[in-house]
Amino acid sequence: MDERRKALIGCGVVFGLAALVGCSSAMTGGNIGGDGASAAPVALAPVTTVAPPTTAAPTTTVAPTTTTTTTTTLPPAPTIPDTIRTVAPLDVPLQAIGSSSGPEAARVQVRLFELGFWLQGADGDYGLTTSQAVMAFQKYMGFDDPSGRVDEQTAMALSVETVRPHARANSGTLVEIDKSKQVLYFVIDGVTEWVLNVSTGNGQAYTEPDQNTPGETISGVSLTPSGLHEVNRQRAEGWWEGDLGRIYRPKYFVGGVAVHGSSSIPNYPASHGCVRVSVPAMDWIWDSGVMPIDTSVWVHDGA
Predict the structure, then answer these.
(1) What would the mean pLDDT of 44-68 be, rounded to a whole number?
(2) Alpha helix (H) ranges present in the chain?
(3) Fewest 10 Å CB contacts: which of 140, 159, 228, 252?
(4) Alpha-carbon gap, residue 109 to 98, rounded angstroms
(5) What is the pLDDT of residue 245?
(6) Judging by beta carbons within 10 Å of its beta carbon (0-12, 13-18, 19+), is residue 248 exposed, middle or buried?
(7) Within a 10 A sphere around the Cβ of 210, how many other Cβ atoms?
(8) Is 134 helix (H, G, I), strand (E, B) or coil?
């Protein structure tokens, strides 16, 4: 704040005027009337003193100093909904280990569990489900190249993140599939409990042999249909020879489109329309009972 300057006080000046004094002189002449007598003396005029006018000193009023206090009102801190969980940042940041196994890999696995990315265990073995969980985290964060390896960017993001990932759904129990991020959420009573890496339909037209009908072909477009669906049939046994290839323990939610296990879950849409997850993840889905018949399945493009 600029410092105010104080007003200067002027001083009054008293002006004195000198008195003017007037004088008269008598003239002496010769004989008047011829008898030799002198003229009568003439008295001098009395001196008159004029009092000088008095000018009063001007009155100067000093402007009072005004102090202005500015009060800044900060906006309230954003409120995190009850359906979103928070975590503390790590005191010791994770190291960039690539895909190496060992004690640091175990720390990465524990952190992924804490953030809600599913994997088989925190044993320090950097295997398939660890790679898939890292890839899901990278996709969720919007990284350019979700490789499934812990590079510097991924290690730092895992270390400082304080908000668990959350789906768009904030109520109910359902499976939510975000095709833009290529991840699947399990939402339980409005809370996003688990996140899986997936690969959905690539949007390309295809014509391929029918695996169940020799000599026949199947044509279509590789789309995972958006909308609200539900699990309506399933196959609990292992690998199933579908019309377009082998699928593992599928749970169908619209027509022939299912969430199923696969040996290939890349970091981009690659399926004919189904939602691919890893084989261990599909076994967990079945064993945990997290996706029974009639479960709602919401598929969207993230917009």
Answers:
(1) 51
(2) 103-115, 128-141, 152-160, 279-288
(3) 228
(4) 13
(5) 80
(6) buried
(7) 13
(8) helix
* pLDDT tens digits along 72-122: 666 665 667 788 999 999 999 999 999 999 999 999 999 999 999 999 999
Joined together, the tokens standing for residue 160 give 């400082």
Burial degree of 22 (CB within 10 A; 0-12, 13-18, 19+): exposed
Nearest-angstrom CA–CA distance, 244 and 222: 11
Which of residues 208 and 104 earns the better pLDDT score?
104
Are 180 and 301 within 8 A, CB to CB?
yes
**Which amino acid is located at 49 in the chain?**
T
In the structure encoding, which two tokens stand for residue 176, read together?
A: 């939510």
> Where do we find the tokens 């990465």?
108
Please give the Cα distance from 4 to 1 (Å, whole number): 9
Q: Confirm if 258 and 246 have CB atoms less than 8 A apart.
A: no
The 3-class secondary structure across 182-222, one letter per residue, is: CEEEEEECCEEEEEEECECECCCEEEEECCCCCCCEEEEEC
Strand order in the sheet with 191-197: 191-197, 183-188, 174-178, 296-300, 227-230
Q: Which of 81, 288, 65, 283 is nearest to 171 (CA)?
A: 81
Query: To the nearest whole number, what is the mean pLDDT of the chain?
Result: 82
Structure tokens at 52: 């000088």
What count of Cα atoms within 13 Å lies in the side-chain half-sphere of residue 50?
9
Residue among 113, 119, 112 at smallest CA distance from 138: 112
> Is the pLDDT reported for residue 44 higher than 70?
no
Give the type of residue at 102. G
How far is Cα 260 from Cα 236, in angstroms, rounded to an integer?
11
| Closest of 196, 163, 157 to residue 81, by C-alpha | 163
